[in-house]
Specification:
The structure holds three protein chains of three kinds. By secondary structure, chain A is an alpha+beta fold. Chain A has three helices and seven strands. Chain A has two domains: 29 residues; 101 residues, Nucleic acid-binding proteins (OB fold (Dihydrolipoamide Acetyltransferase, E2P)). Chain A is elongated, with a radius of gyration of 22 Å. Chain B is mainly α. Among the domains of chain B are: 155 residues, Tetratricopeptide repeat domain (Serine Threonine Protein Phosphatase 5, Tetratricopeptide repeat); 52 residues. Helix content of chain B is 74%, strand content 0%. Chain B is elongated. By secondary structure, chain C is of the alpha+beta class. Among the domains of chain C are: 165 residues, no CATH class; 99 residues. Chain C contains 22 helices and eleven strands. In chain C, the strands form two sheets. In chain C, strands 3, 4, 5, 6, 7 and 8 form a six-stranded antiparallel beta sheet that branches. In chain C, strands 2-11-10-9 form a four-stranded antiparallel beta sheet, with no helix packed on it. The chains are: A alpha+beta, B mainly alpha, C alpha+beta. Chains in contact: A-B, A-C, B-C. At the B-C interface, helix 1, helix 2, helix 3, helix 4 and helix 5 of B face helix 1, helix 2, helix 3, helix 7 and helix 9 of C. Strand 1 of chain A pairs antiparallel with strand 1 of chain C, so a sheet runs across the interface.
């Protein structure tokens, strides 16, 4: 094999591997990304049922009900709220009034979630939730860290 | 001692720079020759084990040998510059000056050399007089966690919590004391007192019932005082005076609250039209004062919101907000007052003067 | 006093790092060996100072010194001693201190093992390492100081996050950091090679043990982290393609590629530029990982409580080191003699293919992890890229790589014989195909699991095929020297075989997830549920009290064929200080598979919501990683890596020859 053919072999195989990688990425990005919205945005966008998305906000106080192993609750940004049903294991930090991110499919009356995310650390608020709350104007800069105490 | 350790560490750090500078230069290692020798050995071993064909082994050996020669040539000692003592000396000076200067400079900015370690064990075992109130509380709390039925612990905790401003804990502890030990005038009154604190100095209906019960069960100065306060907060001066005078009569001559009480009584009878609670507030213990001032401000604000035709009241409110560092509220009150006294030039002038004095003109 | 000494030692370490970042480089520029000789002793002193500092912080945690903000926020006097110690690195500030401790530990290791290295390279490596140390020490002291104190210490702390009060935390972060930070040495080697203009086979051999060590730790760290998530998060998942997990996977892929390309550089003096680039890339990716974890720019289940100021600082460090090294690379790389090209069908050709595929894999993970960030910066849309993306990109690239792996192992250097290799792998092919056929008949599906299982078996047998033919080959059998052949083979050959077989073992574990069973239901005492071939009977539910928590425990019996096999006690723990609960999964390993039960409080008192799983062969996933790490260790013990030692022995042997 000549030097030129060796070089050609290298370039061709590099192109094949990188090309297939790029192709896979583009294909996967078309169908497998999930948009993130706050509850108000979901209503504003008027998304069709069947859309897969992530919503973030706070678990509305008093909205959590359990039926067997499935739970229903509402995710709110202080303005609008979306009912969510979920069956499966809730993360340990899931609680009313706390920040939550739910991923699932939008139905006609709310969302059927397949994944619920909360945080490892209770002082931390998911970034998307902060943004959603900010958009809805329900976020005070210092309220996130100083969640303790309360009252008077 | 601490500075001794710091000096020792800094000295060691500087020495880590100076020591190699002082050592004679060693001949540098060169792994190249060793590497290619090892490679030759390896090829021989592989050939022996028939892992590679004899031709390949021969070719590889030739190549490695060529590289070995090249490496050996390269390995000839380079002309070593740096016989001049200038550079090491410069480095030594940098080390002697820069390391201590940076370390001490940054440390004094960040650190607290005069603060001792505070391991929890030592803090809890400290003698009572030098023990801080936090540690004392923790000790009692730990005791209660083990013996939750010891009501006396709660009795002790109530005033301690109040002193630290842990009002909710105080309410809970007073409640527990009542529950565990049963009712007596002191415990009832103590519970009532925590409720007054929880409500920013206002004697609520519930607290008042507790004080009445305490009084019915026996003589209790606290109950008399707060019942009097309740009456005065409602504007019932006659009753307030009655309670407080009774308390004064009961009090031993050296009772710490005597002076405060006389001041309050004087205030009641003296300024009948517009009682000035400032003196009374000033006489309160420090922890109570804050709450009382808040209560007073809130009451004043509420009254002015109903009926704004009181220029002195407005001026006092603005000033009070400013004192409490609530500039926004002060501005809002100022604006409200200007609205209420829109046509009144004299009042507006006074408001302007105050705004100027307090620096509220933005 | 101890606390303040620790604080001072940290500041002093910064001063030393700054000195060491400058003086040796000056020595190299001036070719003055006296200045270069400063580097090792200063690096070692820096390590001792940071160790003092770390010990002081540990002391403060162990004695519950609540005058330190860090101790208040992450400790509690009632916490068990082991978690007081591990809690030091269970938070941002302490873990950063551990990070620089390990950084300086590696520097100290290089300092003492430098006899075999050319002095200029040695000094340059330590100088670059000091730049990194100085940057991170500054970061710690200015934005994340673990020694920040309060005048009036409270009497009790906020306790450590319950999810972190776990033996897994005792091992996972230090291992991961040993891997992450170990890559800093290969980075320093690359930068030093560029500075000294010494990029050759010898360099490749000098850097190899460090890459191997970092890779081994990273492998174990990732596996440990995955197992920890598996049993603490309580939903039985072990890999979520979460940004933080990806952050550890990317440097791992880059380090794997680096290990392979450095072999080519060592053996054939080729791929030089590429190898240097990979060494820079691997550590850059581990810095990107640090940035992702600490800055909170991406939502992840692992994120630390964070502070934007820190994110900006780390971003600055990131830009400085990646930008600086790439600039150095650009300036020096074209001065390099290009390496030779070679025949595509050969060991080196296969290793190039490995590098191509691994870099592409790494790039897909990188895109999937950072695309949401880029998109948000561009048009404000918030998206998340989840497991489906990675399953569609990473997996189709990685699996063919696994199929090629055994073939590459049997190819010879320089000129390979593809047909001969494939023939030698005949047995492995047959075994894989037979297993697939058997599974297709016995299980019927799912197809992907059958495919993976076949691939896994082929990979494991294939990994040892080359070794087998070399030990039991015709030459050996004829001469009757099987044992001599076996001992004569370099350890790194065994290491390669082990590491590749480990991948096969992990794949087998992954394949078996397709045959698992799961059930989510509410149970009350007396209920029996069937999962897989086991029956789980809930016997009773009761309370339990731990040192700093209370718990609800479900006592369950695992029955198989009517007889009780084992007992498990899954629990939900409640930590009052943080008002947090955490589930403690009940796990029983049976024949390499696991019965896994997680519970949460039920709707009616006395009942629990239970998640029951039967996961056949699931432990293989992590055993595979352990086998890979063993392969790394085995390679690391190869005597050829210690050229310095070889040289000294040689000298004695060479002397008489020279006299001839």
């Amino acid at each position: 094999m000549t030097r030129r053919r060796k070089r050609l072999a290298l370039i061709v195989s590099a192109l094949i591997v990188l090309g297939s990688g790029l192709g896979l990425v583009l294909y996967a990005l078309r169908d497998n990304i999930v948009f993130f919205y706050g509850p108000s945005e979901v209503y504003a966008k008027d998304l069709p049922p069947g859309t897969r998305l992530r919503i973030g906000g706070l678990v509305k106080q008093g909205s959590l009900t359990r039926e067997g192993t499935s739970v229903r609750f509402e995710v709110t940004d202080g303005k609008r709220a979306i009912p969510v049903t979920y069956s499966g294991a809730l993360p340990d930090l899931f609680r009313e009034g706390q920040g939550v991110v739910a991923e699932g499919v939008l139905g006609t009356s709310g969302m059927t979630a397949s994944t619920i995310l909360a945080k490892h650390d209770e002082r931390y608020m998911p970034r998307e939730v902060v943004d959603a709350l900010k958009k809805a104007g329900r976020w005070q800069e210092n309220a996130g860290t100083a969640g303790m105490g309360g009252g008077s | 001692m601490l500075w001794g350790i710091f000096a020792l560490l800094t000295g060691a750090a500087v020495l880590a720079v100076l020591w190699p500078l002082a050592k004679p230069v060693q001949k540098a290692a060169s792994p190249d020759v060793a590497f290619y020798r090892a490679k030759l050995d390896e090829i021989e071993r592989d050939a022996e084990l028939a892992a590679i064909s004899p031709q390949d082994a021969q070719a590889a050996k030739t190549e490695a040998a060529r590289q070995l020669l090249a490496a050996a040539e390269k390995d000839e000692p380079k002309p070593t510059l740096g016989v001049s003592p200038l550079r090491p000396r410069l480095v030594a000076i940098v080390a002697l000056v820069f390391i201590p200067a940076l370390a001490l400079g940054l440390y004094t900015y960040l650190g607290h050399p005069d603060w001792p370690d505070e391991p929890l064990e030592a803090r809890l075992n400290a003698p009572a007089e030098s023990m801080d109130i936090n540690a004392a509380i923790a000790k009692v709390e730990a005791h209660l966690a083990q013996h939750p039925d010891d009501g006396l612990g709660y009795v002790v905790l109530v005033p301690a919590y109040l002193r630290l401003g842990r009002i909710e804990d105080a309410v809970h502890a007073a409640q527990m004391a009542l529950q565990k030990l049963g009712e007596n005038p002191q415990r009832l009154a103590a519970y009532g007192e925590t409720l007054v604190f929880a409500n920013h100095g206002i004697v609520t209906e519930e607290a008042r019932r507790l004080f009445t019960r305490a009084l019915a069960a026996g003589a209790e100065p606290k109950a008399l005082f707060f019942l009097g306060l309740a009456a005065s907060q409602e504007g019932d001066k006659t009753n307030a005076r009655a309670y407080w005078q009774k308390l004064l009569a009961q009090s031993p001559p050296n009772a710490p609250w005597r002076s405060d009480l006389t001041a309050r009584l004087a205030a009641l009878s003296g300024e009948a039209a517009a009682p000035d609670p400032a003196a009374a507030i000033a006489a309160l213990p420090a922890a109570e004062r804050e709450a009382a001032i808040r209560a007073m401000i809130d009451k004043l604000a509420a009254r002015l919101a109903e009926n704004g035709q009181d220029i002195d009241g407005w001026l006092r409110l603005v000033r009070a907000y400013k004192v409490m560092n609530e500039v926004d509220k002060a501005r809002a009150a100022l604006a409200a007052a200007r609205r209420d006294f829109g046509g009144n030039a004299a009042a507006t002038a006074r408001l302007d003067a105050l705004a100027h004095e307090l620096g509220l003109n933005s | 006093m101890i606390v303040e000494t620790g604080h001072f030692a940290l500041v002093l370490a910064l001063a030393l790092a700054l000195v060491n970042a400058g003086v040796p480089l000056w020595g190299i520029a001036a070719r003055d060996r006296r200045l270069m000789a400063v580097a090792p002793s200063v690096a070692f002193a820096g390590f001792l100072l940071i160790a003092i500092s770390y010990a002081a912080l540990t002391y403060a945690h162990v004695t519950s010194d609540f005058s330190l903000v860090n101790v208040i926020e992450n400790s509690h006097s009632a916490k068990p001693l082991i978690y007081k110690i591990t809690g030091v690195w269970g938070n941002h500030e302490g873990s950063m201190l551990l990070w620089v401790l390990i950084l300086s530990l590696f520097a100290a290791a290089v300092a003492v093992s430098g006899r075999a290295m050319p002095i200029d390279l040695h000094a340059a490596v330590l100088a670059v390492q000091s730049w990194i140390a100085a940057a991170f020490l500054l970061f710690i002291l200015l934005t994340s100081n673990p020694f920040a104190r309060l005048v009036n210490p409270p009497i009790e702390g906020n306790d450590l996050n319950p999810l972190l009060q776990d033996p897994g935390l005792a091992i996972h972060p230090p291992l991961l950091y040993l891997g992450y930070v170990g890559l800093s040495i290969t980075f320093s080697f690359a930068a030093a090679a560029l500075i000294c203009g010494r990029i050759d086979a010898v360099w490749a051999r000098l850097v190899r043990p460090w890459t191997l060590a970092a890779w081994t730790f990273l492998t174990l760290g990732i596996a440990m982290g995955s197992y920890w998530a598996y049993y603490t998060l309580g939903w039985g998942g072990f890999w979520f393609w979460d940004p933080v997990e990806n952050a550890s996977l990317m440097p791992w892929i880059a380090a794997t590629a680096l290990l392979h390309s450095a072999t080519v550089m060592e053996k054939r003096e080729a791929l030089k530029v590429w190898t240097i680039f990979l060494a820079i890339l691997a550590f850059s990716l581990s810095l990107v990982g640090t940035f992702i974890v600490r800055s909170g720019v991406l939502t992840s289940v692992h994120a630390f409580a964070n502070d934007p100021r820190r994110g900006v600082f780390i971003l600055a460090i990131l830009v400085f080191f990646i930008g600086g090294s790439l600039l150095l690379f650009a300036l020096r790389a074209n001065a390099l003699k290009p390496g030779g090209f070679f025949v595509p069908v050969s060991r080196e050709g296969a290793l190039v293919l490995n590098n191509l595929v691994l870099s592409t894999c790494c790039a897909t993970v990188f895109i999937g992890t950072l695309y949401p960030l880029a998109l948000q910066a561009l048009n404000g849309a918030k998206i998340s890229v989840g497991p489906p993306f990675f399953n569609l990109t990473f997996v189709p690239l990685f699996l063919p790589l696994c199929a090629v792996m055994p073939i590459a192992q049997t190819l010879a250097w320089k000129r390979g014989d593809l047909l001969g290799s494939v023939q030698r792998l005949f047995f492995a092919f047959v075994c894989g195909a037979a297993l697939m056929l058997f599974l297709a008949v016995a299980r019927g599906g799912p197809a992907i699991s059958i495919l993976l299982a076949g691939l896994a078996v082929y990979l494991m047998i294939g990994a040892f095929t080359d070794l087998g033919t070399r030990i039991f080959g015709r030459a050996a059998l004829v001469n009757g020297h099987v044992l001599r052949h076996a001992l004569g083979l370099p350890r790194s050959t065994y290491g390669t075989a082990l590491a590749h077989a480990g991948i096969g073992l992990s794949l087998l574990g992954l394949a078996a997830t397709g045959w698992g069973a799961q059930k989510i239901l509410a149970m009350k005492p007396g209920d029996v549920a069937r999962v897989g071939s086991y029956e789980l009977a809930l016997e009773s539910v009761g309370p339990q009290t731990g040192p700093n928590y209370t718990a609800t425990v479900a006592h369950m019996a695992i029955r198989s064929g009517g007889s009780k096999v084992a007992q498990i006690d899954p629990a939900v723990r409640f930590y009052p200080t943080r008002q947090m609960s955490r589930s403690e999964a009940g796990i029983k390993t049976i024949d390499f598979g696991q019965v896994y039960v997680g519970i949460s409080d039920g709707t009616t008192p006395g009942s629990v919501n239970a998640r029951l799983y039967w996961k056949p062969l699931v432990t293989f996933i992590w055993f595979g990683a352990i086998v890979m790490a063993l392969g790394g260790l085995c390679s690391l013990s190869d005597r050829r890596l210690r050229i310095g030692v070889a040289r000294r022995v040689r000298k004695l042997a060479v002397a008489p020859q020279a006299a001839e």
